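Suppose a classmate hands you a notebook page containing two proteins, each written out with its sequence and a corresponding row of structure tokens. How would you begin to make sense of it? This section walks through that situation. The first entry is reproduced here exactly as it would appear on such a page.
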Amino acid sequence: QVDVAAMVQLFGYVDVTDTGFIVAVLSIAFNPLFWNVVARWEHRTRALSQVFGSPHAACYCLGAAILVLNCVRSHCFTEAMKSQPKLEGWDCQWTYYSGLAISAVGTVFVISSFLALGFTGTFLGDYFGILMEEKVTSFPFSVLDNPMYWGSTAIYLGWSLMHASPAGLLLTAVVAISYTIAVLYEGPFTEEIYRRKQKGVKSK
């Protein structure tokens, strides 16, 4: 069971009205909203593919935009942590190295996911009509679904522990929630894209 009293005490360190904290929350929420809206618009209209001359060029441009937005999000996350107090009981080597280990595991999941999917597979290539031959089931997908998202969440969690930051922990929860919502929208839509692909192959 969740210790509500402990959570109230923990988040008593967080000023949710701080401008930096609010900007971090908005940047976290905006990113998955942005790429889902743009990718679905592309899937319906092929407008980006027409503008950039090919689906691959359009996908690479969207991927570059997502990477820039993720850098902005990480910067806002870090600045929000710096502007708020640390939890003194956690400001020790044990917590620091625990956070470092969690971040390292998250980094492994993110990098291995990228290597397994490639650039277009990672950055919504299927919405551009760039479909993979088959579903990737090798590591890290053999360990958990959506390893890119949960690896990223683990990185933020580890980063928060390394800074002994209650604000960071709360922002990490926002990251997890935003990814959970993204998965609920992306999963069925992506499955439908590949279902149509398989139906088209069988009808030939």
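The notebook's second entry, a different protein, reads as follows.
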Amino acid sequence: RSLLGRKAALSTLSILVALLIVGQAVTVYFVYQQSGQINKLTKTSQTLQLQALQKKMPSSSKPASKMRMAMVNMPRAMKDLPLSPSADRMPLDIMGPVSNKTEDQVKHLLLQADPQKMFPELKDNLMDNLKRLKKSMTAMDWKAFESWMHKWLLFELAKNPQKNEKKVIPAERGIA
């Protein structure tokens, strides 16, 4: 009698374990299907946000082939970078006025690539702004930025050749 009871209990326990395993498998299957749908909805909403931003941008009066790229001074560009709210946290009508300024066009392109991108608020002079940027950037990002600044400086020097020939003195380096 006890052997029959143990066999019944064992078979009942086996059936319950099998049902739990099947239940877990079904749950995993449905969660996997839902995650795919959530990813599709996320991509669709980002696309719709970008389309709304593009519609909100004023159209240029000149054809694209006749437009010239504006030359921006580094201190001016660094000074005018306001804090840009994340596209998914703020409604589109609160994000501020949209214009054809170079800064706005660049921000729009950067936000298209990554809607989560934030822009720091830089209101001090150039040196203080650069120090604040250096503290907020990773070492690798800062090195890339320094490289870009060097290339920008070379471009500016090539654009405006100096009439007064002066000997170039390299920056002193500390002894390591």
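A careful reader of the second entry would note: The first helix runs from residue 2 to 56.
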